[in-house]
Amino acid sequence: MSLIHILSPDRMLCAVEVGSKRAALEKLSQVLSRHITDVDKDDIYQALWEREQLGVTSLGYGIALPHARMPDLTDAIGAFLQLKRGIDFDAPDDQEVDLICALLVPNHEHTDPQEHLKVLSELAKVFSEPEMADKLRAATDGQQLFSLIVRQAE
Questions:
Q1: What CA–CA distance (Å, rounded) separates 154 from 133?
Q2: For the chain, is the Cβ count within 10 Å smaller at the N or the C terminus?
Q3: For 107-147, what is each residue's pLDDT tens digit?
Q4: What are the structural domains, with CATH classification, of the chain?
Q5: Given 67, 108, 110, 116, which residue is catalytic?
Q6: How far apart, in whole angstroms, are the C-alpha atoms of residue 72 and residue 68?
């Protein structure tokens, strides 16, 4: 599945102010819940938080990719936060995180269990370029963030 089908400019926010990992996951849950019918923001938050407790989702270099499976989803969906200031995200390099891309994927037997790993791999590849991270940090709106990520993924 292509990132163009998972991300959307209206789920990509710039200069977001949060003070903690929990607050960032709450904000992502709020953004995602507005675009998913019949899934509560608290359920999204709980799924993201529980996955985070299994192992950190920070890639290092100020980037994190929190992700979770959701039983009531039919399609993968993502949201992106560019933070005004970095936060502690238990990164392996101890660097604060200021770019966060969350991914939710369906959790049922009709979904390829490897699909979310493919998407996470694609996202990690997009964010692995230091120049790309700098461009994302300089973006001023959701459309610009979306265009940068989609172009990099092509």
A1: 16
A2: C
A3: 765 466 677 677 778 888 888 888 999 999 999 999 999 99
A4: 3-153 (3.40.930.10)
A5: 67
A6: 12
